[in-house]
Amino acid sequence: MTSYLQLSGLNKTFGTFTALEDVNLDVQKGEFITFLGPSGSGKTTTLMIIAGFEKATHGAITLEGQSIAALAPQDRNIGIVFQNYALFPHKTAEENVYFPLQMRKVKRAEGMAQARKMLDLVGLGGFEHRYPKELSGGQQQRVALARALVFEPDLLLLDEPLGALDKNLRESMQIEIKRIQKTLGVTTIFVTHDQTEAMSMSDRIVVFSNGRIEQAGAPLDIYHKPSTRFVADFIGESNLVPATITDPAAQTADSPLLGAMSYAAEGAPAVRAGQEVTLVLRPEHLKLSRAPLEGYHSAQMKIETIVNFGDSGLVIGHKDGTQLRVRVPGVDVVILQEGDDCYVNWTQEHVYLVQE
Amino acid sequence: MTAVSENPVRTGSASARPERASLTPWLLLAPLAAYLAIFFVVPLAQVAMMSVTEPTPGLGNYEKVLTSPLYRKVFLNTFSTALLVTVCCLLVGYPLAYLMVHTTRRRAMMILLLITMSFWTSFLVRTYAWMVLLGRNGPLSWVFLQLGWDEPPQMLFTRFASTLAMVHILAPYMIMNIYSVMQKIDPSLVRSAESMGARGRSLFRHVYLPLSAPGIANGSVLVFVICLGFYVTPVLLGSPREQMAAGLIGRQIEEFLAFGPGSAMAMVLLVVTLVILAIYHRRFGLDKLYG
Amino acid sequence: MNASFKLIGLLVVLFIAAPLVIVVPMSLSSAPSLQFPPPGYWLGYYAQYFSDPTWLRPTFNSIVIALANTVLTMLLVVPATFALVRHKFWGKSLANIMMMMPMAVPHIVMAIGYYSYFGQLGIVFSKLGVILAHTCLSVPITFLVLSANLKGFDRTLERAARSLGATPSQTFIHVTLPILRPGLLISSLFAFIQSFDETVVAIFISGRNAETLPRKMFDSIRQDADPVIAVISTLLFLVVLAGLLAPHVLRLTRRLFGRPATHTEPRS
Lengths: 356, 291, 268
Prior knowledge:
By secondary structure, chain A is α+β, with helices and mostly antiparallel strands. Chain A has nine helices and 20 strands.
């Protein structure tokens, strides 16, 4: 079975600068995919290639089995919500939403009715006659969404659409976008550099770095089984510990910092004995104790700083000049003291082996 | 730039559309380029030509224009007047701009409106207004009479009259340039300087003046250059004995049909103007001048 | 220091305002020559201006020339501005300088050039000649205003239009042009005013046939100081005042009547 949208071997160079390198991705119909990565990682470039505003230097791009690489942007039937919404300032909300229908030769009366229906769906009934500058950021966002959806696009692209909104509004818009996407069942690609946004909204996350896809998978898989050091570092908080493989078959490694330990077998890449690797330990998977815990790997450290978040705390400790971060439940924060000696404990399934 | 550009190379580069980048700009630019070539460059070149061919080929006109005492006096007069006007504009403009930044918003808007009004009123109307003000039977003479001055001084057709009018006409350029720079001076900078002990004159000299200097430079260059080539006001208000360069060029063409010397003077005026602007351009960029 | 600054400010304001205001009473004066205070007031010189062909013809000439100049300037400058703002090409900075040159050359220099060149072409002392010359002089200011507008134009809007199904030309007509309209209007206005006010070149090349208003005023001021000049000055001054106050008045009326008019353009 071929996928709905397929990117294969995409490359993009600007002069000597490589913006994209061998990007391959299959998207299923109705999926909500997030491109996650820091700025300059290639996620927006990929989006613009899909939209038709950039041409890939090499590679193929197909939608429902048809190559769309040669199509002009206006012929691709792809809806886009831009970072700054790009609402036409000289048109009212409903005229903005009517615009794609107007371009598709839909009669004005009929098109306006459709536009109003779409505005209702995004919760903007009653704002039809407002101009963009008379709308709040969140409302503009909804108009942009309605405009990108009203012509029933084959694909919806969202380019960091929530970046300009404040935190509360951002969270409610996340839920709203997700709701509308589910209602319409439109295949969606969402670009962001915000990992919590990616985690909460996506069916699948594609992590970009330096023009390449580092990892693609379900949010929890990406979180729990980072396949590269970059992903482990970029998504969630991590303690990254250098180590040397001792026995690949038994999943054991030796770390100068934390001593010999075994690591999780699932998702670990193939390694050989003696190879230098990085082990990832999530702060929330570490447990603090006064004495080593039974059945755990343990190491001693000195507590340097305690940051209290109320519902939880972050304990930052030092061992041999290297920082270790441990997340502890809120109740534990009060009994810990800066300067205390204590033990960190962890189990094998929470040690992820990643490649550089 | 557009907010979608996350990649520094694409921003502001034409590579987004390599397939069309080559011909389109030339086609768009061609009509204007051709027009300027035919109706701007050619007539200008003709002035240059006439300066070395009329009435006889050679550099005679330049020799005359650059060495004869009459011409030298006119050039000197032109420069000194331009300098004087620039300094006066600065003396008039700087305090007003300062006031506009530091007074209430409402008052600043009123002053701004007045300045814009003056700016948009034609040179000729403003020159005429000064003719009215400074005339033998004008308001100023009337005031002098009321003050018991039997024979009010002759003000019209003097260097004083033309200088005053030119200051009035060009002051808006100076004020707008300084005002736009001053407006952007971060008040917290001034406050932090105050907190470090800068007061009054030293605060002004070490903080305010350097920060507003670009506006002063812009305004001064603009005023000086316009003044160098000023024709209307000096001709109508100034003393016939103390002509400025543009006026003399005009007279030579109008009255004597002396295209040779007139063109040579015009070329000297042009070169001086362009040199000043070129120096300015290299240091600051011309596009900022009229910004 | 504050009080003295205020006093200086007040004096400067007076200095700037007085000449603008003085022409108004003079235009209403019944004296046949400049005299202050006016011996009496009447509207006779207004009547004279509006009935005297030696004044009306130059006014008409100026309007025709300025209009033609505006159309020609916009036709040439708009595409060139798009080229210079939106494209990168070899020789771009040279082209930029070229656009600004007519502003840098003293008008008296151009006046001699046109006088002799248009004499050879046989269009000196004709409206056509003045229009052609003024168009060159209008290029820089028009370009400056327009390019500032175009630089501020968010090109994402065009991408948005394309993604919504508009072809490049539809995008231009439905999105680019309407959004740039205020900028186009303002730059046209600049072109018009620059031609309408231009004096030096007109003095030398407009002759009797194409005599413009500034030329007629210049000659009149120099020769007989016709009191009608005060009338024209007042009228021109009032036009400027109206032009500057119009946006405020419009905004006020809009606020009074609630909803904005059909188009509320962004300040780009």
